[in-house]
Amino acid sequence: MWPPLRAVCQRVCRRSVAAVLSKCFRHRDANVSHFSHSAGRSAQACEALMYRNHGDPSRVVQLEDVGLPPLGAKDILVKMLAAPINPSDINMIQGTYAIVPDLPAVGGNEGVAQVVEVGSQVKSLKAGDWVIPKDAGLGTWRTRAVLPEDDLISVPNDIPLLSAATLGVNPCTAFRMLSDFEDLKPGDSVIQNAANSGVGQAVIQIAAARGINTINVIRDRPEFTQLSYRLKAIGASHVIKEEALRKPEIKELFKTCPKPKLALNGVGGKSATELLRHLQVGGSMVTYGGMSKQPVTVPVSALIFKDVKVRGFWVTQWKRDHSQDGRAFRAMLDELCSLIKQGILTAPACTEVGLQEYRAALDTAMQPFTSNKQVLVM
Prior knowledge:
Blueprint: H1 5-13, H2 17-23, E1 45-51, H3 57-60, E2 61-67, E3 75-84, H4 87-94, E4 105-106, E5 112-118, E6 130-133, E7 144-148, E8 152-155, H5 161-165, H6 170-180, E9 189-192, H7 198-209, E10 213-218, H8 224-233, E11 238-241, H9 249-253, E12 262-265, H10 269-277, E13 284-287, H11 300-304, E14 309-312, H12 315-321, H13 327-341, E15 350-354, H14 358-365, E16 373-377
Parallel strand pairs: 9-10, 9-12, 10-11, 12-13, 13-14, 15-16
Antiparallel strand pairs: 1-2, 1-4, 3-5, 3-7, 3-16, 5-6, 6-8
Helix pairs in contact: 6-7
């Protein structure tokens, strides 16, 4: 279930550009995204992809020159290195996401930056460190930013740039769903739709590292065979088309691997219902996305005779629930970065795009059957 919209908006409003414009010369709240057109004793100016109205991202997003606020004692000046365009970024600009910031706002919720300068009271970071946002709403589609130390968390600067840029959302979502809902052991099975998405690819790789089988469902498409090979190359046990879930051949598959304890749903609609049909008795289906924009329908028989559990997951809420004690987040990032360094967890297929080419990148990110994630490189 989504958190109360009022509570979410209140939190995001403190991050909004409008709030900063009125406060940039006063003491700054640690939760505000510091971004101002009035530079004052400014660290430097920067470029940012901003939107002043909700709507079609390719129309409402504009590249603007803006000034940065002064560097406070507990602030960090960062240079953004790379930031992906995720579906949640698109939905936020459209005004349809659970987080709706005050306008104008800077786009982007994920990315990696390098520390350029730190305030006099900063303890945890130093120049040269790589950092990612702790929470959504920070506005990562910009070249530089002045941010509170508490809004950032370090990652190793010797992992691939694209892995760091795409670490904070999809791999974390995959990690938590594989860890928090069922006690999965080597040899167990997980079934998922949207298997070629960023989350889906992370699920495949993390599950393979744990010895867990994955049954990966993707929509039929002209390049199905090539995509199937690519997913198997990163560790997928089985790759099947959606229509195969309704055919007798699925029974043959379950002769070679156990029925899944866990189903991961990023699509909704009929696809989610089909996942439920193949769960073990007492298994869980976790919904983290709804690309079909169709509701999840649960058959009564699945509840009565199979006692399935139907859950939801939003990584932003998980991060906020664990914000007071950062050890769980730190431990998760450390484990994910260890997998990256071992070559076990790789970034999804990405297309690097210069900030000036943002319109084409936004258009591409919104196309159906998009296999490559668009990543803005500053």
